[in-house]
Amino acid sequence: MAKILSQNEIDALLTTVSSSDQDINEQVADDEQSRSIVAYDFKHPNRVSKDQIRTLENMHDNLAGHYGSSLSTITRTIVDVDLVSVDQITYSEFIMSLVTPSCTYTFAAPPMDAVCLVDFNPTLTFAFIDRMFGGGGKILEIERELTSIERTIMGRLASKLYHDLERSWENILKIKVEQKSFENNPQFIQIVPPGETVVVVSFQVKVFQSTGLLTICYPYVALEPIITKLSAQNWIDATKMKNLETDKNVNRRNIGLVEIDVSAILLETSLKMRDFLNLKIGDIVPSDTKINEPLEVFVNKRMKYLARPGLSGKKRAFQISEIHENPLEEAIENDG
Questions:
Q1: Tens digit of pLDDT for each residue in 235-268?
Q2: What is the pTM of this model?
Q3: Residue 22 domain flag
Q4: Domain membership flag for residue 154
Q5: At what angle do helices 50-75 and 148-169 cross, to 10 degrees?
Q6: Domain check: are 238 and 298 in the same one?
Q7: How many CB atoms lie within 10 A of CB 163?
Q8: Do residues 319 and 294 make contact, with C-beta atoms less than 8 angstroms apart?
Q9: Where are the alpha helices (DSSP H) in the chain?
Q10: Please, are residues 138 and 70 in contact by the beta-carbon 8 Å criterion?
Q11: CATH number for the domain that contains residue 124
Q12: What is the DSSP string of 295-328?
């Protein structure tokens, strides 16, 4: 026999179910809240937004392509340069990540205020040196400072990097890179305080079987005056303006002055070779061409106009009277 619940029992059951649903909802809300919470370090805040980081990624991805082509030309072999990451960390963390001894340069890039830094990993450095001196491209594990000759070789590669860096920045800002110093030990370089935020751009460079890192460090104080320009919209607008300027220069060059050969045939006649050889100054050459017949004018050996002979001041000239229409050219234009 089925048991019939009393009203008090029904109320107690509904209260239990309601409290259970509320506990489940609170637990789900707590789980969602825990997933959405991101740890934030107030000592090392992110001072460059994701949109600005994305613009720097696009800019230095272009740099990777330009510099890879430049290195391939200099070393006469295929060199792959790929953008690895764009991170913002403290300067002390960046310096601790570098290998000693290394090949490190500091450079200024006016109108940026602060000094920036570029570092060639030792594996990458000696791979380039080995290639430039005719090596076979084997992997070299060497830990020593560069000689004066090796520094000259790497200085050439660094100068090419500066040139390509200027090209990559020109859509955002016209910069002029000037090298400041060279250092084998990055620990001795102090361009900003240790706790200052820096933006570190890392590239992976592959030469034959050797792979190394190329790193560019921008202090935040260098980017701060132009930080508002590092936006995706500004990047797109600047790229469009550059393309418009390029198209304008191409069109201006295409419609500029062009040197062409223009000639007019005054008359045509037939002479025996004996008569031609006996011609003297003052002789009259007879022709069937009438004086009122138009001249044929040729442009680059193609007949284009009909004209009348005459004078322009004291110079002999001809006046265009008619544009010669070539049936073959008209047929080609109509087909096109």
A1: 565 566 666 667 777 777 777 777 788 888 877 7
A2: 0.59
A3: no
A4: yes
A5: 130
A6: no
A7: 13
A8: no
A9: 7-36, 50-75, 91-96, 122-132, 148-169, 220-223, 232-254, 273-277, 327-335
A10: no
A11: 3.40.1550.10
A12: EEEEETTEEEEEEEEEEETTEEEEEEEEEPPPHH
Task: State the Cα–Cα distance between residues 198 and 62, nearest whole angstrom.
Answer: 21
pLDDT at 328 > cutoff 60: no
DSSP string, 167-224: HHHTTT-----EEEEEES-GGG--SS-TTSEEEEEEEEEEETTEEEEEEEEEEHHHHG
What is the tally of structural domains in the chain? 2
DSSP 145: P
Tell whether omega for the bond before 101 is within 30 degrees of 0, i.e. cis. Answer: yes
User: In terms of domains, do 204 and 60 share one?
Assistant: yes
Residue 74 within any structural domain of the chain: yes
Cβ(152)–Cβ(145) under 8 Å?
no
Q: How far is CA 34 from CA 21, 27, 39, 131, in A?
A: 20, 10, 11, 53
Domain of residue 273 covers 262-335
pLDDT, one tens digit per residue, over 303-312 is 888 888 888 8
Closest CA to 182 of 206, 163, 158: 158
Based on the fold, state whether residues 223 and 326 are members of the same structural domain.
no
